[in-house]
Amino acid sequence: MSVEIKSGEDRYDIVVDGKPAGFLETRTRPDAILFLHTEISDDFAGQGLAGKLVTAALDDVRAQGRPVLPYCPYVRSFIAKHREYEDLVPEDKRAEFEL
Fold first, then answer.
1. Could you point out which of 9, 30, 47, 85 has its C-alpha 20 to 30 Å from the C-alpha of 62?
2. Which residues have CB under 8 Å from 75's CB, separation 6+?
3. Which segment of the chain is annotated as a signal peptide (predicted)?
4. Mean of the pLDDT values across residues 14-41?
5. How far, CA to CA in Å, does 4 sit from each of 36, 52, 62, 64?
6. Distance of alpha carbon 93 from alpha carbon 56, whole angstroms
7. Residue 2: pLDDT over 80
8. What is the spatial distance between Cα 39 and Cα 50, in angstroms, rounded to a whole number?
9. Model confidence pLDDT, tens digit, residues 35-45
10. How far apart are CA 22 and CA 15, in angstroms?
11. pLDDT averaged over every residue in the chain
12. Residue 60, SS3?
């Protein structure tokens, strides 16, 4: 299985063997990047693709030196389980996201 993550304007896409498998919708603001919605196609469910997609997106945002506001429930729970990404959420916003 070949998995490719593509970043575009206000979204990250995950492609498996050349087929679109899901996306992560974002919004860029001057103060942060908002992670709004993660969706994986039913055809690709249960393969850990959402985690791969979110990991790639968070790593990309870290490389840009930008903070994240995880409004997407999946991203929020992912960060709660993977505390190495918690620093991307501004300290004064963590309580709002229960982090």
1. 47
2. 24, 35, 38, 54, 58, 68
3. none
4. 95
5. 21, 10, 19, 20
6. 22
7. no
8. 7
9. 999 999 999 99
10. 7
11. 94
12. helix
**Whole-number pLDDT of residue 1:** 62
Question: Would you give the DSSP letter of residue 89?
Answer: S
> For every residue of 2-37, which 3-state class applies, written as one string?
CEEEEEECCEEEEEECCEEEEEEEEEECCCCEEEEE
Q: Model-level pTM?
A: 0.92
The number of residues making up the chain comes to 99
Tokens of residue 99, six digits: 């982090």
pLDDT at 64: 94
List pLDDT tens digits, range 83-92: 999 999 999 9
| CATH number of the structural domain 3-97 | 3.40.630.30
